[in-house]
Specification:
The complex is a heterodimer of chains A (about 60) and B (about 450). Chain A is mainly α. Chain A has helices spanning about 10-25, 30-50. Chain B is about 40% helix and about 15% strand. In chain B, helix 2 packs antiparallel against helix 3 (about 50-65), helix 11 packs across helix 12 (about 330-335) and helix 11 (about 295-320) packs across helix 13 (about 345-365). Chain B is an alpha/beta fold and about 450 residues long. The chains are: A mainly alpha (about 60), B alpha/beta (about 450). Chains A and B meet through helix 1 and helix 2 of A and helix 11, helix 12 and helix 13 of B.
Chain lengths: ~60, ~450
């Protein structure tokens, strides 16, 4: 489970990876403060990773 | 006889100009209502009694001496408490900012004052214009949210405390408060109105715009606040058309694209009401045809969510690092988590955003405006600010959108209809909205039980 671009990951796997990254950044004690946003953020990350783009596709 | 507090901004401006009413009387009437409503509605965080009265006296003197009158001469307004107004604190709903007066006016407040409008105070915002509910109460029903983040602006205009309140929208924070409070909200094209002097939430999504009680007022305020501002790096240099002729010449037969994707996501009551609106519009001569978005709505929402979260995380990074104890739970969670969203995800979202802009523009080519409910639901309870999913796509794309009240349910809550226009084509959007406003003929008001 990682936060790299990987369209094969499930929402749950993305959420677990995001939680791990948050714990690394903020510490385990801070996880309750982050919980409110975790599911929505994971779902959004998962959703955009279902839309692969070619290198020559649109620029940001 | 129309009470002073029932006058729209345009009506008040006309009557002041023709000396039928006095700006002093108007301001006094509204200050009295603000004071009386405040214990229950909590629409204001700061009321500038002294400043508003002084400005009203000056406005009256100018009328008496035949001086030059701006388009909003003597008309009171409120500014959401993330707009700077000289001498008043900009708290953004964040305790550490209380008591620190702003040194100057934001671009928009300055424009309104220069047009003769009178600032009566700062309306309550959710903290940092995010999604933690504010204490403001919905005037239609005290057990329902007034929405956010422009909660005081929406409730204050609905309760006839002011005819104009400035709001901002990053997700749905102008249109949804307008919808849940039964009034009109306009979110102009991104960059059409300067964000200078406004506390940011998400740079590429933040929009400034008015909450009012008529389309004419929306046009009147937009005409004053639109325009290039070199102090806002995203401000557009495009010429500003005259918006007022638009509302004086509504479209004869507006072509409306009914966005069925959103009907599928609406609560049944809301969907049924929007279909009634579409039927009324058709019967009155509109050409209504069904349109389906090329990409699913959930992709728009995911791209919006990543964009807002990562930008808000960057906006708040230094303050969150220093002391996050005064942050409300939702904005804090979002700003903290946004720091670990990978860079590829933000950039990938921006690439998808560009694709969505192009796809949606193609669908817009054959219609004057998209038609959809403003919100998926009627106002829910006060533990939330409601559902932004019907407004956020247009914030993401930067397209102009307007919300009109379109009915009242048996539960005593307002329904609202949204029109979405083409990039920088506010004139057509306002012409379509004026036409629809006439067809809908909405005239309900919230109960005055405060």
């Amino acid at each position: 489970m990682t936060l790299r671009f990987d369209p094969t990951q499930s929402v749950e796997e993305v959420q677990a990876a995001l939680r791990n990254a948050a714990e690394t950044a903020w510490g385990a004690d801070a996880l309750p403060e982050i919980e409110l946003s975790l599911e929505i953020a994971a779902r959004a990350l998962w959703r955009v990773s279902q839309e692969p783009l070619e290198p020559s596709d649109v620029e940001p | 006889m129309t009470h002073l507090h029932d006058l729209t901004a345009a009506e008040a401006a006309r009557q002041i100009r023709s000396r039928q009413i006095s700006p002093v009387d108007l301001v006094e009437a509204l200050l009295t209502r603000i004071e009386r409503s405040q214990p229950m509605l909590k629409a204001f965080v700061t009321v500038d009694y002294e400043g508003a009265r002084a400005a009203a006296r000056a406005a009256e003197a100018t009328v008496a001496t035949g001086g030059e009158l701006g388009p909003l001469h003597g008309v009171p307004f409120a500014a959401k408490d993330i707009y700077d107004a000289a001498g008043l604190p900009t708290t953004a709903g964040y305790r550490p900012l209380e008591g620190i007066p702003a040194r100057s006016d934001s671009f928009t407040v300055a424009r309104l004052k220069a047009a003769g409008a009178i600032l009566v105070g700062k309306s309550i915002t959710t903290q940092f214009a995010s999604s933690d509910p504010s204490p403001t109460v919905n005037p239609w029903r005290a057990d329902r949210t007034p929405a956010g983040s422009s909660s005081g602006s929406g409730a204050g205009v609905a309760a006839r405390l002011v005819p104009i309140a400035l709001g901002t929208q990053t997700g749905g924070s102008i249109l949804r408060p307008a919808a849940y409070n039964g009034v009109v909200g306009l979110k102009p094209t991104y960059g059409r109105v300067s964000r200078q002097g406004i506390v940011p939430l998400s740079w590429s999504l933040d929009h400034a715009g008015p909450i009012v009680r008529s389309v004419e007022d929306a046009a009147l305020v937009l005409a004053v606040i639109a325009g290039h501002d070199p102090a806002d790096p995203r401000s557009l240099a495009a010429e500003v058309p005259d918006y007022l002729p638009a509302v004086r010449s509504p479209l004869d037969r507006p072509r409306l694209g009914l966005l069925v994707d959103f009907l599928d996501r609406s609560e049944p009551l809301v969907s049924a009401q929007l279909q009634e609106v579409a039927a009324k519009a058709s019967a009155a001569g509109a050409i209504v045809r069904e349109v389906r978005l090329t990409s699913p709505v959930d992709l728009y929402l995911a791209v919006h969510s990543i964009t807002m979260q990562t930008e808000a995380a960057a906006v708040h990074a230094a303050w969150i690092a220093r002391d996050r104890s005064a942050y409300s739970p939702r904005i804090k969670a979002s700003a903290m988590l946004g720091q670990v969203v990978p860079a590829w995800a933000y950039l990938h979202a921006q690439r998808l955003r560009r694709r969505l802009v192009a796809e949606t523009a193609a669908l817009h080519a054959d219609v004057d405006a998209f038609l959809l409910p403003t919100a998926s639901n009627q106002p829910p309870g006060p533990e939330t600010t409601g559902d932004a999913s019907f407004q956020a796509p247009w914030s993401l794309l930067g397209l102009p959108s307007i919300s009109l009240p379109s009915g009242v349910s048996d539960a005593g809550l307002p329904f609202a209809t949204q029109l979405v226009g083409r990039h920088l084509d506010e004139p057509t959007l306002l012409r379509a909205a004026t036409w629809l406003e006439t067809v809908l003929a909405f005239d309900a008001q919230p109960p005055e039980n405060w």
